[in-house]
Amino acid sequence: MNVKREKLTTLSFFLSPMAVMVVLFYLVPLIMTVYISFTRMRNWNVSKYLTEFVGFYNYHRLLYMFQHDPTFKAVLLTTVVFVGITLIINVFGGLALALATFFIEDKPASAFRLLWLLPRMSPIAVYSLVWYYFFHGSEIGTLNSILMKLGVISQPIPWGQIVPWGAWSIIIFVNGLVGVSFGMIVFTSALNQIPKELVIAARVDGASSWQISRRILIPMIRWHLLYVLTWQFLSLLTTYPHLFLLVQWDLVNGDYGTTLALYVFNTAFGMGEQDQGLAAAAAVLLSVIGIIGGFVTLKVLKFERMMKRPRGDF
Fold it and tell me: Do the beta carbons of residue 262 and residue 239 sit within 8 Å?
C-alpha cells in the first residue's frame, strides 16, 4: 500500500506543473468560450453583454448560415479540403523524407533535413511574404514571370483568385511545406532508434529499401505515426496565421482562403463590428470537431490495442 502511495505521490509531483498549465491555458479558456457563446457579446463590451444570456441563439445563427449563407458554406468546405489534403501531405510527406534520408550518408542527409527545416525556422511574416511574391497575380509574381518568359502564358494569371482550387492550392502548398518538416523530425528520430542490425540483416537477405521500409521500419514506428497524424490533424484544424496574412494581402480569395479557425479569429478580432458571441459559438463547434476527429483517429489506428501491456510483462 505504501509503495502505491509513493508512486502516486511521485506521479502527482511530476504531473502537477503540466496539470496546472492545462487548467489555466486550456480548460479555463474553453469554459470561458462556452460561456461567451451563450451571450450577445459584441465589440468586447464586457460590462454590457457578458451577463446578457441568449441561450442557443448564436448556434441557431450558425445553423442558419450553414443553410443559407454561401460564404459560410465556402468556409466549411475550405476547412474540410484544407485539413484533409494538407494532413495527407504533412504525414506521408514527412514519412517519405525521413525514409529517404535514412538510407543515405549522414552528412548529405543532415543538409537535406536542414533545407526542409528552413520554412519552419523562418518568421511567419517573412515566409508568407516569400510565397506572396511567388504566387502574385501580376508580372512581379515569380511564377508568372517564369511562365511568361518561357512563353507558356501571355498574360499574368491571378492564381489565388481562381476559385476554388487556385486559392486552395496556395494555402495547402504554403502550410504543407511547413508541416512536412515536423513529421520529418519525429519520424527521423524514431527511425534512428531502430537497431541497425535489423536493416543490415535485411540487406544481407537481399531486401530492397522499399521492402525494408514497408516490412521493418514503418511497422516499428506506429506510435509515431499515430502521434503525428493526431497532432497534425488538431494543429491544422486550429491554424490560421499563414492563412490570415495571405487573405489580408489579397493573394488568395477571401471566401476560399478562410478556414473555420480563421473565421473565428476574424469574427472576434477583425475590422468593423466584432461579434464575440458568434465567434465563441463557432470556436465551440471547432472544439467539438477536434474532439470527435481526434477520438476517431485514435480508434481507427487502434490506440487502445497499442496501450495493452505486453504478454511478457508482469
Answer: no
